[in-house]
Each structure stands twice: as C-alpha cells, then as structure tokens.
C-alpha cells in the first residue's frame, strides 16, 4: 500500500468535469484507490464518492493506492490533481 499527501492544484478543485476525468483515469488501474479528507474516505473510482468530498483548490488530501499497479496509479493520479 502506498500513500501520498496531495494538494489540489486544479483551478476549480475536483468538481463536475475534472472529477469525472479523475475517476475515468482511476478506472484505468486495477489498484484499490481512496482519497481521505478530514477523516472522510472516498473510493476514487466512484464519481459520487469523489464529489461528495467537494475537494477545492489548495486543500490537502491523502491519496492511497493498494494493488498490482499501485505505484503507477498513485503517480498518475497525484499528478492529475496537483498539476492540471
């Protein structure tokens, strides 16, 4: 299992369209992926889970990946959140 603290760099946070793209990217990987914010956990492969957290620009979250392709998934998704 790998974890990384990420800061939302997306201008509008992970709302609507960016959240949908984030979830689509997450579904390319076999690893189990979660986001944690203020003790609340969400499945990264669920649009409702991600949007329910309402991640805004500048907020910090914990991204966790566990499984066969965890390193690749964690790097790609962290990059998406931080640099897009």
TrEMBL record:
InterPro entries: HPr, HPr-like, HPr-like_sf. This is HPr family phosphocarrier protein. It comes from Sporolactobacillus shoreicorticis. Residues 1-84 form the HPr domain. NCBIfam families: PTS_HPr_family.
């Amino acid at each position: 299992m790998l974890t990384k603290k990420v800061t939302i760099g997306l201008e509008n946070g992970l709302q609507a369209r960016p959240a949908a793209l984030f979830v689509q990217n997450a579904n390319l990987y076999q690893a189990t992926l979660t986001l944690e914010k203020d003790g609340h956990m969400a499945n990264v492969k669920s649009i409702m889970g991600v949007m329910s957290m309402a991640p805004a620009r500048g907020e910090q979250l914990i991204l966790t990946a566990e499984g066969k392709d965890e390193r690749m998934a964690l790097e790609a998704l962290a990059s998406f959140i931080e640099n897009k």
